[in-house]
Design a protein that fits this description.
single chain; 278 residues; alpha/beta; five-stranded parallel β-sheet; three-stranded parallel β-sheet; 10 strands; binds nicotinamide-adenine-dinucleotide
Length: 278
Amino acid sequence: MLTCKEIADKIQEDVRNELTKNNYAPTLSFVVVGNDPASKVYVSRKEKVCSAVGIVSQSHNLPETASEEDVIELVRELNEDEGVNGILVQLPLPKQINPNKVSDAISPEKDVDGITPINLGRLVSGNPFLVPCTPMGIMAVFEMNQLPIEGRHAVVIGRSLIVGKPISLLLQNKNATVTMCHSKTADLAAMAAQADILIAAVGKPKFVTADMVKKDAVVIDVGINRVEDKLIGDVDYEVVKDKASFITPVPGGVGLLTVAMLTRNLLTAYKAQKNILL
Ligand code: NAD
């Protein structure tokens, strides 16, 4: 089985080769609002990978006190800028800003996070264009390790727009039977224990314990929780790893794939903007 690191490296290498071979020079703009330390770390990690792949990136920083209008105005400027091929607004945004209004403002052609209503709608209608990076990364794990999906029961814990909802659609498109669980699900542990494929995107450290996992299940841990300066997943890795047939670790798991898929999404956006066949 390939590890997430190996899969991420392969995706990045493919993107780098395609850029070099064709002399493509895509540019990615990050919009960072406020001083959230985790956001800064994530953006600098993404910038580093972009640069290794041959993508030019630029970070636009707005202060914590920025208004919704300020952010939307910046996004509109980047939409208009022909030198910008992708726009990523780093979440979370300060409380005074409605993230839905901001994502509504991003041009769907530059929406490398796949969060605009048009791109989410295309995913729902079975005609995806730019799909959120984390679920795309998870699908790469299944594809590159040839883990079967069809006919399997997948349980997704968490219903966010960026992870839970799109991964449930992608798994359904590959003929899994999907159960969505969330904070109001009754008897979630029993539900999870029926899963052949268990996706945890909850945001609670070690939420998934061994009793919630069916023997030989495939367990994908999306959670990134900072506990006393350490990164802990949503799955209690040490106790679940012996029960699962495949499990992704934290750190060194899905997070690497998210960043790799960002480079691929930027390439897709660039080619679409240049009318290059996808
Ligand atoms: P979110 O934080 O927006 O929402 C959490 C979801 O979990 C909600 O849908 C909620 O219904 C559900 N939930 C909360 N408490 C629950 C409970 N007690 N029982 C069942 N469900 C419950 O979700 P998100 O943005 O998808 O983030 C989830 C986690 O994934 C976070 O730790 C985040 O940091 C991480 N994340 C990681 C990556 C990555 O690249 N690895 C990308 C995005 C998010």
